[in-house]
Amino acid sequence: MAYMINAEACLKCGTCADTCPLGIISEGEESYVIDADQCVECGSCAGACPVGAIALKE
Questions:
Q1: DSSP class of residue 5?
Q2: Does residue 40 contact residue 22 with C-beta atoms inside 8 Å?
Q3: Residue 51 CA, distance from chain mean position
Q4: Are the CB atoms for 15 and 48 separated by under 8 Å?
Q5: Cα(42)–Cα(19) distance, rounded to whole angstroms?
Q6: Which of these, 31, 36, 24, lies nearest to 6 by C-alpha position?
Q7: CATH fold for domain 3-56
């Protein structure tokens, strides 16, 4: 599994991208996007998101 960003809740603030130790989060058209193939599930992005828009993909 990998973390995913809920596009509807994302504020596009960039906090998640700034905290990702692998640098695999980039700004998309509607929200930030996590490269699921490279995500190591460290949780840094989820812990940093001010609105809780990031969760493990089920």
A1: E
A2: yes
A3: 12
A4: yes
A5: 11
A6: 31
A7: Alpha-Beta Plaits (3.30.70)
CB atoms inside a 10 Å sphere around CB 41? 11
pLDDT in tens, the chain (58 residues): 899 999 999 999 999 999 999 999 999 999 999 999 999 999 999 999 999 999 998 7
Helix, strand, coil percentages for the chain (3-state, nearest 5) = 15, 20, 60
N residues, the chain: 58
User: In the chain, what are the domain boundaries?
Assistant: 3-56
Q: What is the value of pTM for the model shown?
A: 0.92
